[in-house]
Specification:
mainly alpha, 2 domains, globular
């Protein structure tokens, strides 16, 4: 099992080194090699779906003694929630390579950076201690810095610097929290043990729990991002290349929510109980605010970016409610959002390559020239809205049902986010695809080719599969959601 885990984590890094060492004269091989290297992690994830050990709560698979004299080690493991996010990452990475345009496919820096990003993301989801989690959390910044800063849009410098400043600022708090937790662990165990098993056995005082929860959660919430820490996200999405936007929305936003579920709540539960209502309020504000601002956008990519603020607000509302149903829905919605938003950003990228504009007003009636594209975009829009039978409905329904038991008023307000989502997505679709074509360039648009269809159709299949058969994905989040909810119930009983 440990060999599989390390292969899953290290294979993309090895692949990036292969790409970086290849001569520029063989640029035609960069993408085929990257696709092959992405198939391996994808296949490993499929294999792990058959392993019962991967279906439960977090299990430590292997530990590496890093600084033995101080008891500092790096631990790696897996759980059902980790496996789903690893699978989501593998799918989006593979499809990003398939969909990337020739402009980027022949750049070894671009291809190699995505593979490094794959390595760092896998490291986050496989980390079994605070130190390795922080290391990989920071490692995410390096490839994203280059992807946005070199291959981004006109305002890429501003967006990149803003992204780095926000993320590093949050990472400082995570780092301080890691040191503080290590000091507490040393006082109890005599070693700087930061692995999850040791942390779960420690008894933190109420003050320690609150401080540590605030430190870790603040850093993670910037990554989610939650209102009002979200302002870096629209700029980053607009300026990032298509592959960067796909991975940023599909995978990187999940890192923050994952950190809260894996670290903040299980280990510092008293802090969570103290501040969960505040998180719930900010989540609902984010749901409504993100949706309203999305309605006002004139750039389709910025519209989808603000929709992510709204959708991730639902995820955080489910997490803050803290019961089994809401937590299960939040984890499922993390996967759903990655699929739908990743597909939408991919489709926007296809259209941008043809027209070199993202302004909604620059289109209109293009359903006549791009019928396949229009049908797929509508399908993804319905999935994003949460149409029953598609994946978005499952997660949002479970979140609202679960959170209603804890926050009736806030859940009722948050439910209006579904209505607003229908407004901004369907209105944008109407303006872009229906009516008569009034701009000559739109009459000359070419529909999706076979490469583009192969890139996006697998995401549609997954959206439909989860919407029709949610029990499959639910089976992999049950144990994590159950464990977290039980910990919350235990501490709630103690405080009462």
């Amino acid at each position: 099992m440990s060999i599989l885990i390390y292969t899953l984590m290290l294979f993309p890094l090895i692949g990036s080194l292969v790409i970086f060492t290849m001569p520029k004269s063989r640029s035609e091989l960069f993408r085929p090699i990257a696709i092959f290297l992405s198939i391996i992690p994808f296949g490993l994830c499929l294999y792990l779906f058959t392993n019962s050990q991967s279906k439960g709560s977090f299990v430590n698979i292997h530990t590496i003694d890093w600084i033995k004299s101080y008891g500092i080690s790096l631990t790696f493991g897996i759980s059902g929630m980790s496996l789903l996010l690893l699978f989501l990452t593998a799918v989006l990475m593979l499809l990003s390579f398939l969909s990337v345009s020739e402009k980027y496919s022949e750049s070894k820096g671009f291809i190699g950076s995505i593979l490094v990003l794959h390595f760092a993301v896998n490291g986050v989801f496989l980390s079994g201690d605070l130190l390795s989690l922080f290391i990989f959390f920071e490692a995410l910044l390096i490839p994203m810095y280059f992807l946005m800063g070199i291959w981004g849009g006109e305002n890429r410098r501003y967006a990149t610097i803003k992204f780095i400043i926000y993320t590093v600022f949050g990472s400082v708090f995570i780092f301080i929290g890691t040191i503080y937790a290590g000091v507490i662990s040393y006082g109890v165990t005599g070693r700087l043990a930061l692995d999850f098993a040791t942390l779960s056995s420690l008894t933190f005082t109420t003050e320690q729990s609150r401080i540590l929860f605030l430190m870790f959660t603040f850093g993670f919430l910037i990554k989610v991002p939650i209102f009002p820490l979200h302002t870096w996200l629209p700029d980053a999405h607009v300026e990032a290349p298509t592959a960067g936007s796909i991975l940023l929305a599909g995978v990187l936003l999940k890192v923050g929510a994952y950190g809260i579920l894996r670290v903040s709540i299980p280990f510092f539960t008293e802090g969570f109980l103290e501040y969960k209502f505040l998180i719930a309020v900010l989540s609902v504000i984010g749901i409504i605010y993100g949706a309203i601002v999305a309605i006002a956008q004139i750039d389709i990519k910025r519209l989808i970016a603000y929709s992510s603020v709204s959708h991730m607000g639902f995820v955080m509302l489910g997490i803050s409610a803290g019961n089994y149903l809401s937590l299960e829905g939040a984890i499922i919605q993390m996967v759903n959002h990655g699929l739908t938003t990743g597909a939408l950003f991919m489709l926007v990228g296809f259209l941008y390559e043809r027209r070199h504009t993202r302004r909604i007003s620059d289109f209109g009636g293009i359903k006549a020239t791009m019928p396949k594209y229009a049908a797929i975009f509508l399908f993804c829009s319905f999935a994003s809205i949460g149409l029953p039978g598609l994946n978005g409905f499952v997660g949002e329904f479970m979140i609202l049902m679960g959170s209603f038991a804890t926050y009736k008023v806030l859940s009722g307000i948050g439910a209006f986010g579904v209505v607003l989502a229908a407004i901004y997505m369907l209105w944008a679709y109407q303006r872009m695809f229906t009516g008569e074509i009034s701009i000559q360039e739109n009459k000359e648009l070419v529909d999706l080719d076979s490469k583009e269809m192969i890139s996006v159709v697998p995401l549609l299949v997954l959206m439909l599969f989860i919407g029709i058969y949610p029990s499959f994905i639910e089976g992999y989040v049950t144990q994590d959601a159950l464990l977290i909810s039980e910990i919350i119930d235990i501490f709630s009983g103690r405080l009462n």
